[in-house]
Design brief:
Elements lengths: L4 H12 L3 E14 L3 E3 L2 E3 L3 E3 L7 H13 L5 H4 L12 H15 L1 E11 L9 H12 L6 E6 L5 H4 L3 E12 L4
Helix pairs in contact: 2-4
Bound molecules: magnesium ion.
Magnesium ion binds next to strand 1 and helix 2.
């Protein structure tokens, strides 16, 4: 009954401005012939690739949204509008680098990312270690902080019919000590 008021206030402040924050993101791109298939910044040889204004890297886009969401900084469409000629055919690693800077400026550090790619063909698994290295380097992380999983669409929905590539991501960020 007689709790010290200072502790209650500190607890309330922590709830209002938590040290740890989660974000989720997902993305889907239609696949068409004549486009390069790029996932996690890695080019995967295949006869089709994502249709998009940028390079259509669904994994990088899902991670951007997860990071922006964790920091409540909006979404990828707000920061990189697909009407801007600046981003036409741009490498999505540029988006990730920019998002990392936004988080830095807002006083957040990235703790870890987990993600899942949905693609019917080709097999993604052999390329995952390279994607982890590339994404980690872009975000200033170690590869083990960036988890990437892959699954098919079991022959159903747009992924399963080979019409689309999908990615889902979740990110955990922490308020950095300096903020
Ligand atoms: Mg996208």
């Amino acid at each position: 009954m007689n709790r010290p008021q200072g502790i209650c206030m500190a607890h309330r402040d922590r709830l209002r401005d938590p040290a740890y924050r989660l974000g989720i993101g997902n993305d889907l791109h239609r696949l068409a012939p004549g486009r390069q298939l790029i996932l996690g910044g890695v080019r995967i040889p295949f006869e089709k690739g994502p249709v998009g204004h940028s390079d259509g890297d669904a994994l990088a886009h899902a991670i951007c949204d997860a990071l922006l969401g964790a920091a409540a900084l909006g979404d990828i469409g707000r920061h990189f509008p697909d009407t801007s000629p600046k981003w036409k055919n741009a490498s999505s690693l540029l988006f990730l680098r920019h998002v990392r800077r936004l988080l830095d400026q807002a006083g957040y550090a990235i703790l870890n990312i987990d993600s899942t790619i949905g693609l019917e063909r080709p097999k993604v698994a052999p390329h995952i270690p390279r994607m982890q290295k590339k994404l980690a380097a872009t975000l200033g992380l170690r590869p083990h902080q960036v988890s990437i999983k892959a699954k098919t669409g079991e022959g159903v929905d747009a992924v399963g019919r080979g019409e689309a590539v999908r990615a889902d991501a979740i990110a955990l960020i922490e308020r950095s000590a300096k903020s």
